Amino acid sequence: MKKRPFGQNFLKDTSIAEEIVRLAQISPEETILEIGPGKGILTQYLLDSPNPLTALEIDGKLCDELRQKFNGKDHFRLIEADATKFDYGCVGPKFKVVSNLPYYAATHIVKRLIDFRAHVIDMTVMMQKEVVDRLVARPGQKEYGSLTVFIQFHCQVERLLEIDKTAFSPPPKIDSSLVKLTPLTSPQVQVNDQKTFFKVVNAAFLHKRKMLKNNLKDWQDQFQLESDPVHLAGIDLSRRGETLSLEDFATLSNFIHTHHD
Ligand code: SAM
User: b/e string for 98-124 if b means 16 or more Cβ within 10 A?
Assistant: First the structure.
């Protein structure tokens, strides 16, 4: 089988493309960013409105095709670039993202866009179903992990649509989901030091089956040993990381940050 670089599974169902653009709820004059336009199935519907559209595509051959196809649309700007490294500040002060993301780089691109969250109104993006399961997970579910906490810390997350693999050509091995991520003006929970917060979160999920008292050994000098089971900031350390809410992680990390020497 021919090897496809860059996660190129093209959507072939135009009714799904139209639905994605509708669910993006684009207001007049908003600038749109599309990542990975491919053969332009979403692009053509995005260009139906006069909103300025910037599209980033890594594949030079597809860029040539897109230039030909949308030649003369002066609200369309195509940039041949790698979305995992792109400086999104140059798209505009505020923009909406609409994309069928390449699977291999989807979380990487979303994390990069979160770095530029001051510019991002929201992102309506298609990703692997399994990844979206992780983005929307609640404490106690098996999909809940450090990616969940990272995304929910920074964004409001809403699952919008399920898309079967047969809607693509060639069909990928797994189904996709459409999700809307809206960066929050301030994080979901009050945290004194974000570096400490994410250090604690990543440590708590390092060995998912282990209890917190094993995963959080770096901070064992702060453990409250007089209680049984052992606690830290009032949190029972016989629990597993996957049971902690964002508030619990904030409580732990604020305590650790305040009490470290
Ligand atoms: N939007 C089209 C559609 O729905 O049919 C194509 C989607 S396809 C899943 C992903 C697209 O992203 C491809 O066109 C691919 O060439 C492009 N792509 C892959 N990696 C990229 C990267 N790092 N930066 C920019 N575009 C990329």
Answer: bbbbbbebbbebbebbbebbebbbbbb
Is it true that domain 10-183 has CATH number 3.40.1190.10? no
Averaged confidence pLDDT in the chain: 95
Q: Which residues of 181-220 are buried (b: 16+ CB within 10 A; e: fewer)?
A: bbbeeebbbebeeeebbbbbbebbbeeeeebbbebbeebe
CB of 8 closer than 6 angstroms to any ligand 1 atom: yes
pLDDT of residue 229: 87
Any atom of ligand 1 within 6 Å of the Cβ of 56? yes
Ligand 1 within 6 A of 163 CB? no
User: Of all atoms in ligand 1, which is nearest to the CA of residue 34?
Assistant: 1
CB 213 within 8 A of CB 224: no
Each residue's pLDDT tens digit, 197-243: 999 999 999 998 999 999 999 999 999 888 788 999 999 999 999 99
The domain over range 194-259 is classified in CATH as 3.40.50.300: no
| Type and span of the H or E element at 149 | helix 146-154
Domain boundaries, the chain: 10-183, 194-259
Q: How confident is the model at residue 132 (pLDDT cuts 50, 70, 90)?
A: very high
pLDDT of 1 higher than 50:
no
What pTM does this model have? Answer: 0.95
Q: How far apart are CA 232 and CA 220, in angstroms?
A: 9
